[in-house]
Amino acid sequence: MGGSCPTCSGNSSGSLVRPSGAGLGDDECRRLAWEIVTRASREEPADQLLRRALARPPVPAAAARRAVSEFVVGFFRGRGWLAEAADPSALARAMELDQRFQRTPHTFTDAELRRCAVPRWIEDCQGKPPVAWLRALQDHPRVWLRARIGQGAKLAARLGFCREGGGRLRDALCYCGREDLFRTAAFHEGAFELQDLSSQAVGWVCAPQPGAHWWDVCAGEGGKTLHLAEQMQNRGVVWATDRAEWRLRSLRRRAARAGLFNIRPEAWTGSDRPPGFGAFDGVLVDAPCSGTGTWQRNPHARWTAAPEDVTELAAVQSGLLRRASAAVKPGGRLVYAVCSLTMDETCRVADDFESDHPAFEPETVVDPTGIQARAARLWLRTERCGGNGMFVAVWRRARG
């Protein structure tokens, strides 16, 4: 749930990079991309293979990394249109489709998008997909940065090629340049994190106060954890738990770069015993999910996810909510978030929780993106906000 491969975030122009003289020639880029495409599976997702391949020494130059990424992501974006994908020529066919969509999206009919952009089973889990969503999935994802609080305008001037996210997210910047952001001085100084807009919105919905005691239950590599800790002004504590120790190691590195010292990473496997001591002012359950909301940024997941995943994960989500809610103190807040739009993982999980836990009352919050009115349940949709699709529900535990 944590995120996507930064190299997949793409170039927003839709043009194919020709990395002549950039460490890998065009043919080498195609060969590496085809190797990744043919190896990608449910067990080894394309974004993980891509990240590892581009990190192997000698590390390809930036233009070559972009080219390989665009071949891989473009292939899975066009996979539904390809009758066969038996040889590397499928890469070229997929890229032609991708570039045609970026230039002339109107040449793709609504019926064609319903038939080819997503698997058929999604209608049973999510309802008939809105055409606007299908078109958004075929577009290139935006690169979102989260500047330090109050430093958005300053960072935009420093990096260039940035525009503000809008709404309450003025420190969220959409980056449209082509510089390798991980190599910039601003990144190494901790001036920003790469974080999807909807993910940033979840942090603002949590709104932890300085000195508070919070728990990020499924912290992953810590994107939301860092945001909570910064809002708390390095005061209080954020317990960040995850099953995978390697994710927590990454979180520790990121926290050190950001200069945040109020984070307590700890391995947690889902037991009834929460980390730390006592009850929490707030608990964030950013639960593992089917990830249908990330299908623009991670098109490979469209073809590996299955309806059985939705059913199984909904049970996991309900269990996590039940165990985590016990750690919320009276008057404290519980925030549930998934980057999925299926009914089983969103409304049904929330409805069942409310039915079984009457002490938790829905709390209306402001949509940080400025798109919706106040609500206790927010639907952040790719076609409307430009970030991942996300569902967020908020409750407050009754006092007494």
At the fold tier of CATH, the topology name of the largest domain is Rossmann fold
Instruction: Measure the end-to-end span.
Output: 34 Å
Q: What is the strand content?
A: 15-25%
Mean pLDDT rating: 91
The low-pLDDT segments are 1-22
Task: Name the helicity range.
Answer: 25-40%
Principal-axis shape equals globular
Number of strands: 12
CATH architecture classification of the largest domain:
3-Layer(aba) Sandwich
CATH superfamily of the largest domain: Vaccinia Virus protein VP39
Tally of distinct domains: 3
Biggest sheet features: 8 strands, mixed
Briefly, what CATH class of the largest domain? Alpha Beta
Oligomer: single chain
CA radius of gyration is 21 Å
Summarize the structure.
With 400 residues, this protein is an alpha/beta fold. The chain contains 15 helices and twelve strands. Helices cover 38% and strands 16% of the residues.
Structure in words:
The chain has 3 domains: 6-107, no CATH class; 143-194; 197-397, Vaccinia Virus protein VP39 (Rossmann fold). The chain has 15 helices and 12 strands. It has helices at 26-39, 46-55, 62-77, 89-103, 110-116, 122-126, 131-138, 152-159, 185-188, 197-206, 223-231, 245-258, 307-325, 347-356, 382-385, and strands at residues 143-147, 162-164, 172-175, 192-194, 213-216, 237-242, 263-267, 280-286, 328-338, 360-362, 377-380, 390-397. Strands 5, 6, 7, 8, 9, 10, 11 and 12 form an 8-stranded mixed beta sheet that branches.
